[in-house]
Design a protein that fits this description.
The structure is a single chain. The chain is α+β, with helices and mostly antiparallel strands and 103 residues long. It has four helices and four strands; from the N terminus they run H-H-E-H-E-E-E-H. The chain is elongated, with a radius of gyration of 19 Å.
């Protein structure tokens, strides 16, 4: 009986741990809502975008890169909507920004 109780406790702990988002996921989710460019989720890299999509049980259908004022945004189409991400670790230089705006 004691062994069964311990096994049930371990199984419950594993299930509970698997459902709890990591600190990074919480940080991303608190950075915006992803519904528009202005409220885009802020991520360090593309891997974090897909970590959040996996956590939310969403699948990317298409991905589009958008550059605004030298900042990189990803618009990811899922089955139900588009989710926007701002990649905060990447930014165009001032010269590139000017060139991009002229073109």
């Amino acid at each position: 009986m004691k062994t069964i109780t311990i096994l049930l406790f371990l199984l419950f702990s594993i299930v509970l741990f698997a459902q709890k988002p990591s600190t990074d996921i919480n940080k991303i989710m608190n950075s915006g809502n992803g519904r528009t460019i202005e409220t885009a989720f802020k991520v360090n890299n593309v891997d974090e975008e897909y970590d959040l999509l996996r956590y939310l049980k969403l699948v990317s259908i298409t991905q589009k890169l958008i550059v605004i004022d030298g900042f990189f945004y990803d618009a990811i189409q899922t089955k139900s909507n588009i989710i926007y991400f701002k990649i905060i670790k990447r930014q165009l230089s001032k010269k590139a920004k000017t060139t991009a705006q002229i073109l």
